[in-house]
Amino acid sequence: MNKLLFFFFSFSLSASIAFAQSSITGIIKKSSGEPVPRATIKVRGTNITVSADDNGAFKIDAKQELPFYLQVSSVGYKPQDFQILRYQETPIELVLVESALLDEIVVTSRRRSEVLQDVPIPITVIGGRAAENAGAFNVNRLKELVPSVQLYASNARNTTLNIRGLGSTFGLTNDGIDPGVGFYVDGVYHARPAATSTDFLDIEQIEILRGPQGTLFGKNTTAGAFNITTTKPTLTPSAKVELSVGNYNFIQAKTSVSGALAKDLAAKISISGTQRDGTIWNTREERRYSGQNNLGFKGQLYYTPSEKLQVLLSGDVSIQHPAGYPLVIAGVTTTERSAYRQYARIISDLGYQQPKIDPFSREINTNTPWRHNQSIGGISVNVDYKIGKGTLTSTTAWRFWNWDPTNDRDFSEVAALTKSQGNSRHDQYSQEVRYAGNLTDKLSGVIGVYLLGQNLKGLSQTEEVGKDQWRFVQTSNTGSQALYSTPGLLDGFGIKTNSTIKSLSAAVFAQVDWEVLKNLHVLPGLRYTYDKKDVDYDRVTYGGLQTNDATLLALKAAVYANQQFTTKVDNNNLSGNFTVSFRPNQNLNVYGTFSTAYKPVGVNVGGLPTTSTGAADLSVAVVKPEYVQHYELGAKTKPFKGAIVNISLFNSDIKDYQTNVQSPQLGVNRGYLANAEKVRVKGLEVDGSYQLERFLTLNAALAYLDGKYVKFTNAPLPLEETGHTELVNGVATQVAFKDASGGRLPGISKWNISGGTELSTAGSLATREGRYFIAGDASYRSEYSSNPTPSSVLNVKGYALFNARLGFKSDKFSLFVWSRNIANKNYYEQLQAAAGNSGLYAGVLGDPRTYGATIRYAF
């Protein structure tokens, strides 16, 4: 009995001592063994928090029963949880891993986690926080950070996203063509370029792959891909909020909450809202345009019942109702039409004054309200299951896009082309199944299948002219042409178009990485793709003067006419790549690539030009597929500690290049698709970065791009040559096309440069330990053509932009001020001819100087 009492007393005493001994001492270190000063240590699930001293030492009274977790975080390091199994008298050592080591960036572009410098593909990686700090809250802002990326948008629908000058048609978008740049978010392909206009939500990393991609995942792309990953829900409760305010009444708020719903089931909800007044003033309506009014929502469930299985269910929706994105009148040029058909004469005859050519006053005088409403979103399920040394992945998704715009396409107070409404509804369904991983010690790879179905509807798409349009289409004031002045003939005359494109794309793809000799890798890849498109196009006229007069009806039909056609097209393609990579050590990776790629057959659903009889020219209803042969040599190097220098040389030859051309006929206001026989883009890219501990980061990138039409014998006339005549059999005959062979491709600057730096030092703000920083970035683009056919007037001059930010950041709290376009540079992003090619052209303006402040807090 005495022994039993003694045992019970001893046990109780030791338990009491153990619980009483709840203090833990320790030191926070880097992986190199040096101390991490001022790190934050928190007992998970409680509010018990302390900070380490300048030598990384800490003491915390946990007051917890064993076992429990300590959460350790510090700016510039990956937050980590450490399990405490017992109390001890001696200090424990906890090691943090630097999160910003540039030579250890991990990417998933080959569907497995790899160090960026080991991947023989030219890739630019931008962290989610880095993008946010630079003010890049959507893809449009990234073009200033990555010289090889070009993005042009007069509105969300008319978005051109290119890499190295290739990808999508330049100018007005035609829904019948596929993008050449893949846009993926969490493994889901987004088929509509409008997705680039939505605000980022909880972005973890953005990988920009340059060059053809198709043997690794998803949709085949001829120019590259954006691979965006978002942060996943966590079982540990967490939340963050962010608020930004700035000039033009800019306000942006973001919040995200994550935590456990049940064992092994985590959830996250994220919300983002952006509001900004417009930067363009409409003097007629007395209201501002080109503002922002965005609301985004994303919800996720993450189920992890074992180390082998992970299931992620995601749903998102983004609603944008901005105050339009009008173009400003940029100039008037003389065409080769008769004096009677010059813009100045037309305006004068209608009794209007010449438009004010002062684009950077940021004023317009249009008489039709601009509206660019859209909603975009979807649902996806991603399942990862580990089998052997790899992972089997299934990604199932549905996405939608609704587009409801109104545009004034004469860009002025004139009642000419008064309304352009390309209402659209898009649904896409995709399924991808792939297996990726290490097959043996020397062999790794990926194999998969991909299906994409799309249903794109044009819903009563409207184009309408007003009372002044007669003078723009009238060729003379004699004969039947004089009857164009008949009162009300064209007033309210227009077309309504209903179209449907049902498309199917199916593919099988595979690529392996085989180390045939020590440090020598060969990477062959193949892709077989089948594409099918069914098109139903129906356009009917309405309005205008109701008459039975045959002459007047013919005049109306010369402006707009009914068009109907149906077509079914399909094609298949076998493409692939072959890469050789030599990696003699950790500091050098030299590679060479030959690849082929293709963009599927295109269809025209923006109106067809008419023949001499006035009928639709069905010969251009279908556009041939685009084929690419691509060569690339590259080297990824780490010349010394903290430094990275990468270089690549490339040449892309494109046969039957799909391009968007602008017809002088009003009935094809949106332009139509055509093939240029051959195009070539070649260039040089150099990018580098340097990191000195946590005090200094430098990055710079340069891209030299040379893009030309090798052969384009049937190019549309540029604006200034509209009305051009040539002698045909001794007779002066007006022509609509020219030989543009040797001319430069639109949207490509020969020189593209970007760079940035950040300096920081340790410090504290109130009771928070962190770092004070000052950072800046700059970008430069040389002149580029803004017209499918080289033009003497539709060229955007080169420009440079400078941005900066200054503030304080810690692992949980950040506060900084920022400014974009500090020099308030006036510049165009795009120029385009007004419909009808009478000599007027308009421009998309870049943003003026903006500035503000941002505060973030995580808990």
UniProtKB/TrEMBL annotation:
Q: Where is the TonB-dependent receptor plug domain?
A: 116-225
* Family annotation (InterPro entries): Beta-barrel_TonB, Beta-barrel_TonB_sf, CarboxyPept-like_regulatory, Plug_dom, TonB-dep_rcpt-like, TonB_rcpt_CS
Q: How does it sit in the membrane?
A: Multi-pass membrane protein
Where does the record say this protein resides?
Cell outer membrane
**What is the predominant subcellular site recorded for this chain?**
membrane
Coiled-coil region(s): none
Q: Where is the signal peptide?
A: 1-20
Provide the alphabetized UniProt keywords.
Cell outer membrane, Ion transport, Iron, Iron transport, Membrane, Receptor, Signal, TonB box, Transmembrane, Transmembrane beta strand, Transport
The protein depicted here goes by the name TonB-dependent receptor
Record organism: Pedobacter vanadiisoli
